[in-house]
Structure formats: C-alpha cells, structure tokens
Design brief:
A six-stranded parallel sheet has the order 1-3-4-5-2-6. Helix 7 links the parallel strand 4 and strand 5. Helix 21 runs antiparallel to helix 22. The protein is globular and about 100 Å long. The chain contains 38 helices and nine strands. 62% of the residues lie in helices and 4% in strands. Among the domains are: 183 residues, 3-Layer(aba) Sandwich (Rossmann fold); 220 residues, no CATH class; 97 residues. It has 853 residues and is mainly alpha-helical.
Length: 853
Amino acid sequence: MSERIPSTNAMARAGQHVEQCFGNAEASHGGLLFQGHLNGSLHIHHETRAKQHAAQRIIPFPRNEDVVDRYVFAALDRLLPPSPDYQSAALWGLGGSGKTQIALEYAYRRSRDPACSVFWVHADNETTFTQDYKVIAKRLGLADGLDGPELLMAVRERIEASPCWLLILDNADNIAVFGVGRTQSSRDQGQDTEEKQSLYDFVPRGPAGTVLWTSRDKRISGSLVGGRRAINVASMTEGEAKILLETVMCREIAEEESHNTMALLAELDLLPLAVSQAAAYMGRTATPIGEYLSKLKRRIKRWQLLSETEFDRHRRADVSNSVMQTWGISIEHIRQENQMAYNILHSLAFVDNQNIPLELVAKAAEMMARPTRYEKTTSAKSVCIKDQDEHQDEHQDDDDKVLAAVVLLQHFSFLRPRTSGERYGAYEMHKLVQEATQYSLSQEDRRTDQWHFSEVALRAATSLFPETRRELWEECERYLRHAQLAAGWAGLCRGGVEAAALLTRVSDYLYDRGRWGEREPVDLRAYEYRRELLGDKHPDTIWSMAHLAATYLAQGRYEEAEKNYMEVLALQRDVLGDKHPDTIWSMAHLAITYHAQRRHEEAEKNYMEVLALRRDVLGDKHPDTIRSMAHLAATYHTLGRYKEAEKNYMEVLALQRNVLGNKHPDTIRTMADLAATYHNQGRYKEAEKNYMEVLALQRDVLGDKHPDTIRSMAYLAATYHAQGRYKEAEKIKVEVLVLRRNVLGDKHPHTIWSMAHLAITYLAQGRYEEAEKNYMEVLALQRDVLGDKHPNTLQAIHNRARRPEALAIIQDCFQLQRKVLGQAHPSAQRSLRALNLWGPDKKKSSRLITSEL
C-alpha cells in the first residue's frame, strides 16, 4: 500500500481545505471560497504586456514542402478570402483524408502576411485544448498565474484584440465539448449542463480574424460553422494521388508502371494517408510498385476472409481498409529492421496520440527490457517482446537507439515531430495509425502482445507521472492525459491495482489545481479497479471511496459526500479499528461535511472525539492533532464563540510555527483564520493587516490560483466592506462571482454565496434594484439546491428584506431559524436584532440590517 502515503496527505489537504470553506470566517463572510487569480493590487487579470501587437506564429508542425496542391485549396480560398471581418470555415471528412495537412499548408500560406498571427490548437478534448491555450498564453506574455477558464478567456480576448489573426482548431471530432448536441442529451440524462462551460465559449470571434476547423464529424456543418462554410475533404483525385506517390517515393513513375500505379491507388482508396504509407515503404525498401501491389492484394484477400462480424466491427472503428493494409505491410518491415521501433509504436497505442514527449518514448523502450506479469507466470514469450541483440555492448548509448527508432517511425509516416518551441521534444501519431495498431493487437492471436504492450504503457506512465508538488505541476500536466489513458487500458493487462495507484496520484494533482470536475471520473475509475480486484473491504478500496467523497464535498454535493463518508467510516471501523489513522480521518471528514451543512453541534461533537483520539494515538504535536485543534476552533468561530476560537487559534499557530515552520500551508491558513476571528470581533485593522501578510505568503508558497490564496482575497474584500470601503470590496466580489461561475458552475453553493454577498455590497451603496435582483436569484437557487429550510436559504430570505414587506419576511425567517437552528444561534440572533432595528427610515434600516449581516 505504498501509494497510500501521498493519498493520505492529499486527503489531509482536502479535509483542511473543505473545512476552511465552511468554518471560521464563514459565519460572517458567507463562505467566500472561489477559484481565481490574484496579483499584488488584488486585480484578477494582469494587464497584457505592451509587446503584444507583434504577429505571433504558433504552428506545431514544420511545413510540408512537398504538399500536393489539391482542389480543396481553391475551395478554401473562396470561402476565406482576405477580409477585415470575422469568418470561419471547416474541413470535414474521413480520417486520413488529409484535413490536417490542408489546414497546415493554409496556415503557412497565411503566414506570408507579416501582420497576421497564426495559432494552432488541438481540439480533440478539453485537455489538449487547454494545453495549447497555455502555450499561446505564454507566447503572448499573459500572466503565468492564469489557469482554468480564466486562462482560456484571457487567450480568447487577447487573440480577438490582434489586428489580424488565424486560429486552426484541429481534430475537433468530439464536437460535444463545443456544446453541439450536448445540452439536450445531458438534460435527458439528468445532468446539469449549466455547471460547465462549453469550449466554444473560449473560441475567438473578434474582427479581422479567421477560424478554421477540421473534424471527422459532418455535423460541424450547420452547428459550429454555417452550412455552406464546410468543405467535405474526400479522397484525392487520381492525378493528385499520383503526384503524392511520386513525391514521397522521391522518383517519377515510369510509363510501364502506369497500369500498376492506377491499380494500386484504387486499392488504396486514393486516401492520402494510405498513399503516403505505401510510398514511404516503397521508397525506403526500393520495392517496385507491381510487387507492392501484389503484396497488398494478398493481405486484402486474407482480410476479407475475416468473419463478417469482425469486419463490421473493424469498419465501425473507423480504421479504413487501405490504411489497415498499408500499415500491416510497413509494420512488418519495421519489425524486421528495428525491433525497438516496432515495440515503441505498439506501446504508444495505449497513451494519447498527441503531444507524446520524447521521455515517454524512451521510457517505453526502457520498460521493454523488464519482465511483465505474463512473462513471470509462463515460460512462453511472444516474438514482440524480444528487444535488441542481447550481445550488444550494454553501455551503448540507449538515447541514440531510441532516436534511431523514432526516425524510422517518422520515415514510415507513423510519427511526426512537433515544432511548437517546447523545451522538450514531442511527437504525434496519426489517429488512424493508432487505431490500426490497437485493432491489430485486439485480434485473437495477438492477445498476449496486447497484454504486454498495454502493461509497458502503464509502467512508463507510472514511472514518469510525479508526486504532486507545485514545482512539478508542469511535469504532471505533460503526462496527465497519457497517464489517464494508459490507466484506462489497464484491464487488458490485469494491471488495475497499479492503474489505481497511478490514478490516485493524478487525483492528488487535480486536487491541488482545484479541478474538481476532472477529478471525479479519475476517483471513480480508481475505486472501480480496487473494488473489482481487491474487494470492498480492502483498505485501499475504502480509501478510494474516501477520495471520491472528498471530491463530492468539494463540488458542494454534501448529501452524497455524507453518505459515502458514513459507509467509509463503517468499513474502516470494521476492518481497521476505531483508532486507526484512516478511521480517524474519516471521522474528521464526516465532521467537515456536517460543518458544510451547518450542522455545527454534530460537527463539534465529532471534532472533540477526533481531537481526543489523535492526542491519544499521535500525540499533541502531530500535524494531524494540531489540525484537529484548528477544526474545533473553526466550529467555535461559526457558533459565534469568538474568544474561544481566538484562544485556540493562537495555540494552534504557536504549535504550527514550532512544528511545521512559518511558511507551511497549514501555518499560513491558521493565520488567515485568526484574522477572520479578529474581523468578527470588529477588529478590522488587525484583520486587514493579517490578511495582507497571509496573501503575500500564500502567493509565494501556494501560488496565485490556490484556493487558500483566493479565499484570503475574499476575506480581505469582506474586511473592506466592514470598513465601508464598498468600491474596493465590490471590485473583488464581482471578480469572485465571475470566477466561481466559470469554475464551479452557477448552482454551486459557493457561487450562490458570492451572489448574495455582492448583493449585500450593492445594498450598502443604496443600489436597491441591483441588490433585489441578486437576492431574488439567490433565493430561487438556494431553494432549488438546498431546500426551503436550509440555513443558507433562511439567510437569503433575510437578506432580501429591504422594502415595507421586509418586516414580515424577517419575522418568517426568524421563526424558521428558531425552529431549525435554535434561538441562540447567531443567525437567529441577527434576525432578531434586525427586527428590533426596523424603523420608518427604510434606507437607514437597510444599512443597519446590512451591518448586522
């Protein structure tokens, strides 16, 4: 269970983070946790740098100097003539038809204009889209701290501000991520599509710009571009295909070869990818066209002997017959010429086909020499497992061998290099090449090979994906997609346990980045692997359930989190015992869930029990024990027992400085909590001073985008509000609301609270109509999400009161609060004081009510 040590740390951070969302300053600040960006002036967006008007070129591939001038170029020029206005078009068609090569040539032709910026984005999925936007952001000089939707929107706006620009969105095959066809189907499945923005929201549409899409999906016509602005890229003409064949073979076709040439091109369906692969093979091996044609026909005949079911399944996989057969001929030659290249290609079938770092290629080659589970359990060996001649000098430079293998794969059109200016080498595999490789390995007589290569990919990804630390975030992002896909194939090699360990590290990274939506399917997959292979009662399976519960809690899905934690706690008590650290952690997290639901008495009882257990098991100075003291202080704060909270925080802070140091995240967090306690006692200058110090430390240690950093920014805004500095408070609160909508969705409790507290600032400035509008929206959302009797709903009813009917509203709110929370609860007491303050001067009374809130 070696992987459980970092998992425990991640759960510790998750528990502390979520607890802080709802504790401490929560009673007065309304839980202003959000995602965003912060600079020294407390502005969300950094100003773009002055240099930005120079044209930028970000094209990931070198120009194909031998590109065939197809009819499509003329059609594209007609659709996208030089224009000062925004325009878009799409290239759609079968995989391997040359869409990307056409777009690439178009991009280089547009680069002839020295004023035109050209950007290339892989649009396969959200991960590749975001990664390429980060490259663009860096090139454009946008702030390093930008992340998530804020980064995507900043890039969109910066591109739109360019005087002339072209954006290529390549391989947009899954157009659902751009909002096409997703909304209604998702609603039918009970999903809330408003929770997540479509990537289409981040596609530039400003003046003097052009967007060119490529996709396999015909529906792109009429959805993302106009019905008449999509070009169907079909097979080449015979003339175009012949020119491509001659170009790649590096020789002209003799007259006596014409008949065989036309027959070969027909067998290849005039598909550019198949023609290129065949030509690369013939050029590399000096094989005559007639001989290659005979070899291809024999393969096709064998292919047609497959059962109809297999053939249909193959066609549905969108791997064309011509690509499959040319792939087979070429790969057999590669196996004979360079076994390492053969092994690398098959291993890469089980990772992402885009942005493959050279380190991943080299690691896959290295893993070939290590015995797999299959080799350990049987003496049989597949021919594919054999590596380089065992008598070679063991000190020979392995890097040279890997590079030679990669070059060979490039010669056969299996890999192509990226040239985006990254610090590291990276490659891409055509999607059809990868699909053909996967299909070949899926055949009945190659299951052993499939087992082997999927395990090699998993091992390589596991070896390269680091433990999550801020200084390694860039490294984690490089391998994120590869790790997820390699883990997804783990069922082939019975590597689910190892895959679950890898996914747990991926989950920890996504937690640190606050990417809750991406984290959930990772946690689910890890839990499914462990439950299937280890059983429901294995400690690692239980721990995966706890990870999933923490994700639900962070997403504001409190009932699901509570249910999971209750189940986890019962299993841990049964399997591990009451005093095991994991059991105690689950008790603490269940208390955090109660706290999130404003069930403070239950939370306090649990926190007291957890603190006693940790003192007994771990000792007074263990970080977890100190953290439990902070949890208890947070509950005192929320219950309005500020003196007790302050005393506890002072003790916690002294211990943390002694045990963890001044710059540990827990120490800094406690400084922020102490500042919140000062705030609630009306000691605003002390609170402000602490928050400023906390912000400086958090930006240095955690970064601008860490949730703790942003939470402190929100609390500082609340302190400004309390001092009557409404304009400063409003500016930050507006930014908070925008960020929460982007990151968490409109219906997340934190987003709703941000709306409510922005309304309070409007009300304090006498902007009653804006406040009323926000309050009504908040009340509707909270009734929908939380129910009529939830404390936050009652608070929203209270907040809405400002007109003559306010007295009745507050009276109703007070009665509900007294029944649900008890008359002594701080919220009920605030309602009671507001009733006493209500008088004939409505504006004055509104200000008084606001100060009470």
